[in-house]
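Need a sequence for this fold. Nothing fancy.
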């Protein structure tokens, strides 16, 4: 019988022992003809013979049906059809040889162990027989671009593709490619060779291999002693599919891990996050690298080192750090005064008193929350924490389940946000207008408030902020700031750096007003309150009116119809009076 090309997979041991189609090569049909259910008719013999053993041991699926639905069986191009069993598994001449091959006797030809087919075509580069162009697309095209396939995972196509059905999940592969995780030009992967031993602390989040090792260690080895890189290997890895999935049975092989404990301040300020299922993965890299403790640990502030230190970087996209309030500088008041202070709250107060519905999504805590609806009850919506709920996989919502862009878009607005946020004043919110009528307005106030803090930093303290250039905070002469004391005392040095820390933290998470609404508001308010006169005296509102009318105009709120949308709360737009009750979380 003829055997046309059938991309049988690699890991199917049951199939491998029984794969006994015979044939002589690739057939195709002329353009315009109608293929049968299995177009590659010469593969039909393989399917018939292996009908009892064609279930993949990896995905527990009928591999013949998977292949039948893929482009390997019937190409969508309309020009050339597919690939069959022999193209990938390449049975030896004479396979099966005689009836005894299946009904007793010894293996065909000289094969004495029964492996007269290629068990792992992927490992032996058989995919490149037809997909040679993939080498150019999947590998880097220049010295600074990241790669889908690095030297560490060469000949492992199945890390991201089901070898029997590469077609059905292709939309997810494309979605992932559009995301930050798959962007080969993103600074997260291209800024440097993160595998270099000088950057080994970065490996855990900035390479797929390092992230996998980090997860598999139970987060016990955050800073590896050395990299796996070999001399001459300067490849840069994106966060590929196998970072989060352990096999091509993707939906059933998401890597599980322990709740994350952030190793802030060189592992001296350890902050434990709650167990939120698969969202634990996200928290591991989106918690930020530093915390307030890093700044507070800078000596006694009376030493020379306190006034000549470089900026302590919060790091980037610390969405989890914002949501769970593990990062951010809140220590703007004197420690001894905190017991009677009614304005600025420290870490312990915030953690114990600031509620967050967003933090409860995908957990049992959502039950009983004042924003709870039937859609959010754990088990009906999602049980894997807030990151998965909003950015990836809303259980029962098929159009969200097919997306790996991780973007909050119309579908997410409709399936997630609108369950609680049904209106904005008199405006009824829908998936069509949700972004412009609700999200954009909140974002504008958030960004305007940050811009005011940046303006005050420059006008009152002579420090310029440049988010595009490290160390981000510069003197007028262009040098990075090291003199944080300026003309003030030692205690102000920490507070000034803390204000800068908050600015950088919030600028690096443009959705901080969603991830940690009240906490972000607190950080901005206190940062401005300190920067305007180096005192926490509820002067933020007056400063906003006087210096940045885009945020406030006396008696009205320029960027919103309601004071509830203001990040500089405290100004009562009805009475024109600043009221301290607006100031508290």
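Here you go.
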């Amino acid at each position: 019988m003829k055997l046309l090309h059938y991309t049988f997979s690699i890991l199917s041991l049951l199939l491998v022992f029984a794969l006994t189609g015979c044939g002589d090569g690739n057939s195709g049909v002329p353009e315009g003809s109608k293929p049968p259910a299995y177009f590659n008719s010469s593969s039909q013999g393989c399917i018939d013979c292996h009908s009892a053993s064609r279930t993949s041991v990896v995905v527990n699926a009928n591999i013949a049906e998977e292949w039948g639905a893929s482009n390997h069986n019937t190409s969508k191009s309309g020009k050339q059809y597919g690939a069959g069993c022999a193209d990938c598994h390449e049975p030896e001449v004479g396979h099966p040889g005689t009836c005894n091959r299946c009904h007793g006797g010894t293996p065909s030809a000289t094969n004495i162990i029964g492996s007269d087919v290629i068990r792992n075509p992927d490992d032996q580069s058989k995919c490149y027989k037809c997909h040679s162009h993939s080498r150019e697309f999947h590998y880097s095209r220049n010295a600074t671009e990241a790669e889908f396939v690095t030297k560490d995972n060469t000949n492992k196509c199945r890390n991201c593709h089901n070898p029997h059905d590469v077609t059905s999940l292709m939309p997810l592969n494309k979605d992932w490619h559009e995301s930050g995780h798959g962007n080969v030009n993103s600074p997260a992967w291209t800024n440097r060779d993160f595998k270099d031993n000088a950057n080994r602390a970065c490996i855990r989040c900035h390479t797929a291999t390092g992230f996998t090792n980090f997860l598999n260690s139970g987060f016990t080895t955050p800073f590896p002693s050395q990299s796996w890189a070999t001399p001459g290997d300067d490849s840069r890895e994106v966060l590929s599919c196998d970072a989060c999935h352990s096999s091509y049975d993707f939906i059933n092989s998401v890597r599980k891990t322990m709740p994350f404990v952030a190793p802030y301040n060189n592992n001296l300020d350890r902050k434990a996050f709650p167990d939120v299922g698969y969202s634990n993965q996200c928290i591991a890299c989106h918690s930020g690298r530093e915390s307030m403790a890093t700044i507070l640990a800078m000596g006694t502030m009376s030493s020379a080192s306190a006034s000549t230190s470089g900026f302590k970087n919060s790091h980037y996209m610390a969405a989890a750090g914002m949501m769970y309030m593990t990062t951010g500088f809140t220590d703007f008041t004197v420690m001894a005064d905190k017991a009677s202070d009614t304005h600025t709250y420290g870490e312990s107060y915030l953690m114990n008193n600031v509620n967050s519905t967003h933090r409860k999504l995908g957990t049992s805590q959502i039950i009983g929350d004042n924003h709870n609806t039937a859609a959010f009850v754990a088990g009906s919506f999602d049980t894997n924490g807030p990151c998965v709920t909003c950015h990836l996989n809303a259980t029962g919502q098929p159009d969200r389940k097919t997306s790996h862009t991780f973007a909050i878009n119309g579908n997410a607005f409709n399936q997630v946000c609108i369950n609680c946020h049904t209106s904005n004043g008199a405006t009824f919110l829908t998936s069509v207008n949700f972004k412009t009528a609700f999200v954009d307005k909140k974002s504008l106030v958030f960004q305007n408030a940050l811009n005011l803090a940046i303006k005050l930093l420059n006008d009152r303290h002579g420090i310029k902020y440049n988010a595009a250039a490290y160390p981000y905070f510069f003197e007028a002469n262009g040098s990075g700031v090291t003199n944080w004391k300026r003309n003030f005392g030692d205690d102000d040095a920490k507070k000034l750096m803390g204000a800068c820390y908050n600015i950088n933290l919030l600028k690096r998470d443009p959705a901080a007003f969603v991830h940690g609404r009240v906490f972000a508001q607190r950080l901005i308010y206190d940062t401005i309150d300190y920067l305007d006169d180096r005192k926490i005296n509820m002067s933020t509102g007056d400063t906003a009116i006087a210096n940045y009318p885009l945020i406030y105009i006396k008696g009205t709120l320029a960027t919103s119809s309601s004071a509830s949308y203001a990040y500089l709360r405290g100004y009562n737009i009805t009475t024109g009076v600043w009221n301290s009750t607006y100031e508290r979380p």
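For context: The first strand starts at residue 5 and ends at 6.
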